[in-house]
Amino acid sequence: MDRAPAVEVESYERRYRDLAGELAAVGYIASGSLARRYNRCGKPRCACHADPARLHGPYWLFTAKVNGKTVNRRLSEDEAALYEQWIANDRKARSLLAEMRALADKLRPLILEQHPDQAPRSPEPKRRRSSPQPRAASSRGGS
Ligand SMILES: [Zn+2]
Q1: Are 32 and 61 within 8 A, CB to CB?
Q2: Which residues surround ligand 1, an ion (CB under 5 A)?
Q3: What's the 3-state SS for the chain?
Q4: How far is the CA of 57 from the centre of ligand 1 (A)?
Q5: Dist. CA 109–CA 103, nearest whole Å
């Protein structure tokens, strides 16, 4: 692999900062889903038990996973409108983050390449000390 052109790194970095800026501007977020529901109540004489039935609703139901458990929350029309926005924000935030991650995947090796005291990658580095250091924990320029 050739040495990374600085221009390439620069344009990636610019895009990355743009994405980070967009992410910062995302409003409140909610991770979950919204559904419209019609219900039957417990009163046997209610119209919701008649034939044809007139069910109650529609109700808005927000469903989310909290600590691995599914949690429902009933919402009014106004609340549902807010949640709709928050859910859209959440989707936006996640897609921005995914794009940032993909960009960072490209950027990291380029940045490492520009680094003057990069660790040799292959073949395996000569042993500097008697005890081998774990890769993840190795401190930079520790000599
Ligand atoms: Zn009813």
Answers
A1: no
A2: 41, 46, 48
A3: CCCCCHHHHHHHHHHHHHHHHHHHHCCCCCCCEEEEEEECCCCCCCHHHCCCCCCEEEEEEEEEEECCEEEEEEECHHHHHHHHHHHHHHHHHHHHHHHHHHHHHHHHHHHHHHCCCCCCCCCCCCCCCCCCCCCCCCCCCCC
A4: 10
A5: 11
* Confidence (pLDDT) at 95: 98
Q: Which residues of the chain have pLDDT under 50?
A: 1, 138, 141-143
Angle at 44 between CA 43 and CA 45, to 5 degrees: 95
Structure token digits, residue 79: 């609340």
The rounded Å distance from CA 60 to ligand 1 centre is 17
Give the alpha-carbon dihedral of 95, 96, 97, 101, to 10 degrees: 100
Q: What is the pLDDT of residue 130?
A: 60
The alpha carbon of 78 and the centre of ligand 1 are apart by a number of angstroms equal to 23
- pLDDT 10s digits, 72-106: 999 999 999 999 999 999 999 999 999 999 999 99
